[in-house]
Amino acid sequence: GSARRQVLRSAETLHHPFSISVFEDFIYWTDWDQQAIFRANKFNGSNVTPITAVHMLQNPMVLHVYHPYRQPDGINYCAAVNGHCSHLCLPAPQVNPRSPKISCGCPDGLVLMADGLMCTEDSHSREEDVNGLSKDILPLEEPDNGLVAGIVIAIVTVVLILISLIALAVYRHYLHRNVTSMNFDNPVYRKTTEDQFSLEKNQYQPTRIYPSTVGEEAQEPLTSPGTNDYV
């Protein structure tokens, strides 16, 4: 606001003020550090006095001054016959002398009639059938239990499949970690196609025919296909 003026400034008195209220010639405030309520002259800040014992209130919060001068008694226009309202009577703000004293309200499902006093059923939310029985325009739909159960079963199945795949992957990884492999050099696998053919040829050993005479044995070469002796 305008015309602001500093009334009180003191590091010894104002430790941690929190809530302020003004009434008549005094200003009141609460102090968290001193845990008390103080008052002082609202014009010059003099005569600072605790109105409660210091360190007796634990974290005093909002401060209000209640007095008939602060809250003057007014006329309750709803007291007499509920303001002629059928349900709820509410005091109305007095903007000008011609402002209404009260306003009527209706609970859910009812609307205020043109007279501003009576409440009636809302015709937009309900309709009358041929038998004269009222029913809701938008009835509540019952949930499809079969659809809900199917969705739940599908979700549980997918979760179980994922858990199974993860467990299988972990198990295979664990097996591969515990397998010890040993490599042996085999010269057979390093041979070419011709060497392999020679090897297979040498592996074929037909039934050896022994010569009947010493002369025939002497005529047989040492490197014949039926022997593995080499000179």
TrEMBL record:
<keyword id="KW-0245">EGF-like domain</keyword>
<keyword id="KW-0472">Membrane</keyword>
<feature type="region of interest" description="Disordered">
    <location>
        <begin position="209"/>
        <end position="231"/>
    </location>
</feature>
<keyword id="KW-0812">Transmembrane</keyword>
<dbReference type="GO" id="GO:0017147">
    <property type="term" value="F:Wnt-protein binding"/>
</dbReference>
<dbReference type="GO" id="GO:0005886">
    <property type="term" value="C:plasma membrane"/>
</dbReference>
<dbReference type="InterPro" id="IPR011042">
    <property type="entry name" value="6-blade_b-propeller_TolB-like"/>
</dbReference>
<feature type="transmembrane region" description="Helical">
    <location>
        <begin position="147"/>
        <end position="171"/>
    </location>
</feature>
<keyword id="KW-1133">Transmembrane helix</keyword>
<dbReference type="GO" id="GO:0060070">
    <property type="term" value="P:canonical Wnt signaling pathway"/>
</dbReference>
<dbReference type="GO" id="GO:0042813">
    <property type="term" value="F:Wnt receptor activity"/>
</dbReference>
<keyword id="KW-0677">Repeat</keyword>
<protein>
    <recommendedName>
        <fullName>Very low-density lipoprotein receptor</fullName>
    </recommendedName>
</protein>
<dbReference type="InterPro" id="IPR050778">
    <property type="entry name" value="Cueball_EGF_LRP_Nidogen"/>
</dbReference>
<dbReference type="Pfam" id="PF14670">
    <property type="entry name" value="FXa_inhibition"/>
</dbReference>
<feature type="compositionally biased region" description="Polar residues">
    <location>
        <begin position="221"/>
        <end position="231"/>
    </location>
</feature>
<dbReference type="InterPro" id="IPR000033">
    <property type="entry name" value="LDLR_classB_rpt"/>
</dbReference>
<dbReference type="Pfam" id="PF00058">
    <property type="entry name" value="Ldl_recept_b"/>
</dbReference>
